[in-house]
Design goal:
By secondary structure, this protein is mainly alpha-helical. It has helices at 3-14, 23-29, 31-65, 67-79, 83-96, 101-117, 122-135, 140-152, 156-173, 176-192, 196-213, 216-232, 236-248, 250-253, 255-271, 275-288, 296-312, 315-332, 335-351, 355-371, 375-385, 394-411. The chain is globular and about 95 Å long.
Length: 414
């Protein structure tokens, strides 16, 4: 062995053995890190304990303190058009006070409405809502429910008194969601009755309430109602602004906003005489909703497309389109819209010089308008019927009137 190697081996033998690693030694070397960890663990554990204590306290107190909150939330959901959500909140209110039979009646009402909106029976919803008013005739949610029920099926004569009662009670209770719901119903009633000054008043009121409530679908209904009211009133640019605003919100609001915005713009362009643009928007909505079943938006878009085709001179396609939208309004049980559609169809037949069918539909529209007290529509139909005296033989004139009466029976909804 070399001298150098010998010295290296001797030095290695003299070196003390390395101590074995232990937790204590590791802790001493990393004491600051451990202290930071202990502090965070302590803080987290304390926070979790506080949350658990808070939950326990809320659960202990909730049964006696939140019944009113559950009811308020249930009624808000119901009047804003979410009966399925209302059922859940009503169940929580029932759990808070199982002896309160009024809550059980309201729960039954909400459940019946949720079923109806899924295709269930309509009579159950009407009966359950009426039963709530038997128990408490001043309960605003039930008045709103009846107003919405009758409005949903176009029965404006029954709708108006319930909507007025709901709005009065909502104002007294400072109940903004119910005031919004009642204002939406009243705006629609006046617009369908062609009482456009009143429609405009309730449209603006509904928009203000919708801003306060902050529910996007109901804000859409308020803004679109104001837009259609303005268009019917001849305030075309004002109506256009509403629908451009709706369409601008489609990125966040989704297809409902997009289709409503385009339908309103189709109406605007048709009333402005810009038929190519009207057709563009109406066709876009009709195609988008072609496989979605019948809805108010699809029926209106189809009717506007029919009017546009008629006024462009494409009468065969106009008659076909307006016949389809007439059937849609019948299935939706929208009596006022159905009468308007009949007048549109009669006008298309008149322009086609098919005076027999024109008089038949004008007679039906005027008779239905008189039956359901749409006074302006009734006068319009009567004025149009007078034109046929020199256009049809006496026999054909009378026969068209008879067939128009048959249509009345076919299209009467109640």
């Amino acid at each position: 062995m070399s001298r150098k190697g010998k010295h290296r081996q001797q030095a290695k033998a003299k070196r003390p053995a390395r101590p074995k690693p232990t937790f204590g030694r590791y802790y001493r070397h990393n004491i600051e890190t451990f202290h930071k960890i202990f502090r965070w663990v302590g803080i987290s554990a304390g926070a979790i304990a506080l949350v658990i204590i808070a939950i326990v306290i809320v659960q202990k107190l909730g049964v006696s303190l939140t019944k009113a909150d559950y009811l308020r939330e249930a009624r808000r959901n119901f009047v804003l058009g979410y009966p399925d959500r209302a059922v859940l909140s009503y169940h929580q209110a029932e759990n808070a006070d199982r002896a309160d039979m009024k809550i059980k009646d309201e729960t039954a009402m909400a459940r019946a409405w949720a079923d109806m909106m899924q295709g269930g029976p309509t009579d159950r919803a009407l009966n359950a809502t009426s039963q709530v008013l038997v128990t408490d005739s001043t309960l605003v949610v039930a008045h709103v429910g009846l107003a919405q029920f009758y409005s949903r099926f176009g029965n404006l004569k029954q709708t108006m008194p319930q909507a007025y009662s709901a709005l009065k009670l909502a104002a007294a209770a400072n109940d903004t969601p119910s005031a919004l719901a009642a204002s939406l119903v009243l705006e629609s009633c006046y617009r369908q009755s062609d009482l456009l000054d009143s429609s405009s008043i309730y449209a603006e009121q509904a928009v203000n309430f919708a801003n306060a409530v902050g529910d996007p679908p109901n804000f859409l209904f308020a803004e679109s109602g104001a837009g259609f009211s303005a268009l019917r009133h001849g305030k075309l640019e004002k109506g256009r602004l509403f629908f451009e605003d709706i369409l601008a919100k489609a990125a966040t609001g989704g297809n409902l906003y997009e289709n409503m915005g385009k339908t309103g713009l189709a109406d605007y362009f048709h009333r402005s005489g810009i038929y190519d643009s009207a057709s563009y928007y109406a066709v876009a909505v009709v195609n988008a909703l072609a496989n979605s079943g019948v809805s108010e938006v699809s029926a209106l878009a189809s009717q506007i497309l029919g009017r546009t085709l008629r006024d462009k001179g494409d009468l065969p396609n106009a008659i076909s389109r307006l016949s389809g939208s007439l059937a849609a309004w019948q299935s939706l049980r929208r009596q006022a819209d159905l009468v308007d559609n009949m007048n549109d169809l009669a006008r298309a037949y008149f322009l086609q010089k098919d005076y027999f069918n024109a008089r038949k539909y004008y007679v039906a529209a005027a008779t239905l308008a008189a039956k359901y007290e749409f006074n302006k529509k009734k006068l319009y139909g009567a004025d149009m019927n007078a034109r046929f005296l020199g256009l049809l033989s006496r026999t054909e004139y009378l026969r068209a009137g008879t067939e128009g009466s048959v249509l009345v029976q076919q299209y009467s909804l109640w």
